[in-house]
Amino acid sequence: MIDLSERPDLSADLIWALQSYVFDSGRLLVVAVGRDGLIDEANLLFRSRFAGFGSVRGEPLVNFLTMGEGTDWLPEPGLKQRRPTAQVFKAPVGGDIYLFHVYPLGDGVLLIGELVDVAESDVVERMGNLAMEMSRLVRDLRKTNRDLAHANETNQLLARMDPLTGLANRRFFMQRLLSSLKDALTNQATLSVLMVDLDHFKTVNDRYGHAGGDAVLVMVSQLMKELVREVDLPGRLGGEEFALLIWNTDCRVATDVAERLLSRLRSLRPFDDAYRVTASIGVAQAQPGEDADALLIRADAMLYEAKTHGRNQVRTDPLQPSV
């Protein structure tokens, strides 16, 4: 994801529209280019089309797209920011034509566009269509903000919430985990993560239908909300897999939390005595300087160990933070 949160030269409405709809649309190519013509960041569609999903950061844009000679289309440093302009680029390999809207930034440009699968004579018309689409997107968002004073807050909440359970979704959970790891390192605080996977959940859907499965997920989520503090964050990572971020808590206390959660889960009776909720839980405490992926891999390994040793239990990673 391209981070535009510290771009004072873009309006808040436009940033929200770009972050919420454009980058992950699966149709529009998005790439940020610096004054030197090097790529700062690109969305998944751009990387998949031009680099086989690999990183393109630091690569010259001309390796993938060209427009005549040099980089005259980049804004001059120090000039007042212009309105977005439409430009046509061509891929050096294959010769495909792409239409991009060029949004000037303080230190470069943001390109948003698509493959033009038409004759060159129709490119100008496609430019107008893309311009209207972007303008309509921003205009509709502004209208919503005028009609609902709290729309921005509401939309941000929905963007980070799992719609079924009301817990943090995977994307927001990962964002919070990343920021919490940085805070923990700065403040020399402890941080632990629980990975929770409901056992034999497929049998719930088979026996009680998907509505019954959803009811179980909601019940489990409500229990997790009740057990944690305001500073902690429960999330649904997908399907029947949950996670819990516990702030300022070491592995020993986090294991106690996991055991308490498991005990409460066993007492749930969403349907009848024929089905009892159980889970496999993995626990890991963050190492100093450890990134989010490494921490989750250790917690997930403990979850897998719980699964392979009979499920319905908690397993804790033995690795303790070095002094």
Automatic annotation (TrEMBL):
<feature type="domain" description="GGDEF">
    <location>
        <begin position="189"/>
        <end position="319"/>
    </location>
</feature>
<dbReference type="GO" id="GO:1902201">
    <property type="term" value="P:negative regulation of bacterial-type flagellum-dependent cell motility"/>
</dbReference>
<protein>
    <recommendedName>
        <fullName>diguanylate cyclase</fullName>
        <ecNumber>2.7.7.65</ecNumber>
    </recommendedName>
</protein>
<dbReference type="InterPro" id="IPR029787">
    <property type="entry name" value="Nucleotide_cyclase"/>
</dbReference>
<dbReference type="Pfam" id="PF00990">
    <property type="entry name" value="GGDEF"/>
</dbReference>
<dbReference type="GO" id="GO:0052621">
    <property type="term" value="F:diguanylate cyclase activity"/>
</dbReference>
<dbReference type="InterPro" id="IPR043128">
    <property type="entry name" value="Rev_trsase/Diguanyl_cyclase"/>
</dbReference>
<dbReference type="InterPro" id="IPR000160">
    <property type="entry name" value="GGDEF_dom"/>
</dbReference>
<dbReference type="GO" id="GO:0005886">
    <property type="term" value="C:plasma membrane"/>
</dbReference>
<dbReference type="GO" id="GO:0043709">
    <property type="term" value="P:cell adhesion involved in single-species biofilm formation"/>
</dbReference>
<dbReference type="InterPro" id="IPR050469">
    <property type="entry name" value="Diguanylate_Cyclase"/>
</dbReference>
